[in-house]
Amino acid sequence: MTRIDLRSDTVTHPTPAMRRAMAAAELGDDVFGDDPTVNALEARGAELLGKEAGLFVASGTMGNLVSQMAHLGRGQELIASAESHIVQDEAAGHAVVVGASVRAIPDRPDGMLDLDAIAGAFRDPMDPHEPITGLVAIENTHAHSMAQPLTVAYTRAVADVAHAHGVPLHVDGARFFNAVVAQGVAPADLAGPADSISFCLSKGLACPIGSVVVGSRDFIWRARRARKLLGGGMRQVGVLAAAGLVALSDGPDGTIARLADDHANARRLAEGLADLPGIVSPGGAAQPSEGRLDPARAATNFVVFRVERDRAAFLDALERRGILMVAYPHGTVRAVTHYGIEAADVDAAIAAVRDALAETAGTAPAPRPS
After folding, report:
1. Which domains does the chain have, with CATH numbers?
2. pLDDT higher than threshold 50 for residue 370
3. How much is the average pLDDT of 5-28?
4. What is the pLDDT of residue 286?
5. How far is the C-alpha of 322 from the C-alpha of 349, rounded, in Å?
6. Sign of CA dihedral 58, 59, 61, 64
């Protein structure tokens, strides 16, 4: 049975052009700063996003972590959304490694945070009872809102609030280029208001490993030291960076522009699922209203929904039909389109969901979290 894996865009395999580039990569020792392929990737990432310098790291989580370590002093606090990856999905690295607390702000259905709520979350630096706010972080795209892309204007508005209080803005841009493509904006314009951005190569861009952090030269120097402390000082890592150079290239082998195909396939999937009995709105941040799944919410490459069945039984029935989706927070199911998924795969997934719903029609839904 052919397996169609929609669990995440992290399941992508490198393109043929990436494999060739990896095999032929010119290598050096990156800790000594003499791996030319890594150096070229870091320079390319910085150039695309309009920043002074870049740093190749092993993962998006490492990218966010070294950024926090570079921005924050021990005992300080960052402001972030309550449903963000930094808060929910990074094993409390902000506390365990950085030594920082988080002031979590409720997410809006559009993936944004209320600007007044951000401003109100800053601590009083004159009160010895309170931690000192040292960073604001946002996530673009915003995963738990069904990967809504955040705009240039909103990013600038958040940066203005942060800078007015004397602190930097970090963007967890794991799927930053999905936001770029969905909105038809230049990467440097979307990144411009932020002081640092971490973007993943290993999701929609289809590289096997890695993320790039960009910012000022001074920030990147501090982040590089943090990477070394975390054990991320890799040696002949140009063999991996070569795939990133292909992904970020302007030619036909680049994988930024093709993200539009993933967005179209996600919309196709959402439209097909929306009319199936037993598929409903996820509610919460992913979709603000109850009832029918709204296909327009599939703005990038995520489809998040709820089933009026036992979720585990539904996912098992789907897997037996060769379709993999994943349980997502708040009782939902997530499907992610990516490199390697074509329109025919989406149609097969819709048919399999229909059959899985029919098979599990007698099962009761799990209680909805309060």
Report:
1. 14-247 (3.40.640.10), 258-359 (3.90.1150.10)
2. no
3. 97
4. 77
5. 9
6. positive
Measured in degrees and rounded to the nearest 5, phi and psi for residue 133 equal -70, 130
C-alpha of 55 from chain center: 18
Give the burial class of 276: count Cβ atoms within 10 A of its Cβ; 0-12 exposed, 13-18 middle, 19 or more buried.
middle
DSSP-assigned states of every residue in 188-240: HHHHTT-SEEEEESSSTT--SS-EEEEE-HHHHHHHHHHHHHTT---SSTHHH
The helix/strand/coil state of 280 is strand
- The pTM of the full predicted model, rounded to 2 decimals, is 0.95
How far apart are the C-alpha atoms of 234 and 257, rounded to whole Å? Answer: 29
DSSP alpha helices (H): ranges in the chain? 16-24, 36-49, 60-71, 85-88, 93, 115-121, 152-164, 176-183, 187-191, 217-229, 238-247, 259-274, 311-320, 343-359
pLDDT tens-digit profile of 182-227?
999 999 999 999 999 999 999 999 999 999 999 999 999 999 999 9
What pLDDT is recorded for position 201? 98
Q: What is the Cα–Cα distance from 302 to 169, expressed in whole angstroms? A: 25
Q: How many CB atoms lie within 10 A of CB 151?
A: 17
How far is Cα 363 from Cα 354, in angstroms, rounded to an integer?
A: 15
Beta strands 302-307 and 332-336 are: antiparallel
DSSP string, 137-201: EEESSBGGGTSBPPPHHHHHHHHHHHHHTT--EEEEETTHHHHHHHHT--HHHHHTT-SEEEEES
pLDDT of residue 364: 67
Q: What is the β-pairing status of strands 211-215 and 279-280? A: unpaired
pLDDT for res 362: 77
